């Protein structure tokens, strides 16, 4: 084969390759643009508009729709970054309404359309369809995954339980929340003080992962560093450094179970019961304390 024929074939191959590459880029670019357009916020209504000195168009009382949710405020404007991502800045009486009915209120909103990520500041209040209410001054909420975080103090009101903490992660789909730093739970019968806790608003079950005190209305106190407590039934199971105290009496063991409604406490393995008033001490492998008649039964090598 002549060298000229080889050169022509190589040239044709290069042209075909370039054409295919250009076609692929064109298709991908078109798909990307189409996806971006589908993901863009759509203005449903506004009272009037003003063009600012920076070139941004400020909408008054705008209502936007995005992926089924509506976003409204007293004023706001849209802008894009250098790669075409869309952002919405909103000010005053911000309201986000999700398709399931969950609403979020705040004074200010920064919204990233591509991520469906809302950063809300100032008097933030999130009201879920389950009835729980989250309040904080700064909330980062992913509207796609329905996961919210606050890092500088907040509160969740769920039924008769009120939980405050410095940091929290809230999962709207499951009703679960993870709380950290200065966690306090207030309910009708008890107050809980801890630094690390998981709470399920549907079941009212709390799980503890650090030093925790559960204080009852009658002065009783349950201490643990790992365990579970049911806010509705008053049943508790603890498995690390456990101690139950009531007045001058205390009961401890490697595992501790307590039922608030019937006043029964059970301790298993390395059990110690002490009544400092009566100067009574008991040791064994299993202890049963009855708070109603203030009796202790010790078995398994007492």
Automatic annotation (TrEMBL):
Protein's UniProt keywords contain Transmembrane: yes
Domain named Organic solvent tolerance-like N-terminal: residues: 49-195
Keywords of this entry: Membrane, Transmembrane, Transmembrane helix
Transmembrane segments: 12-33
Domain of life: Bacteria
Name the UniProt record assigns to this protein: Organic solvent tolerance protein OstA
Native source organism of the sequence: Sphingobacterium multivorum
Organism lineage string: Bacteria, Pseudomonadati, Bacteroidota, Sphingobacteriia, Sphingobacteriales
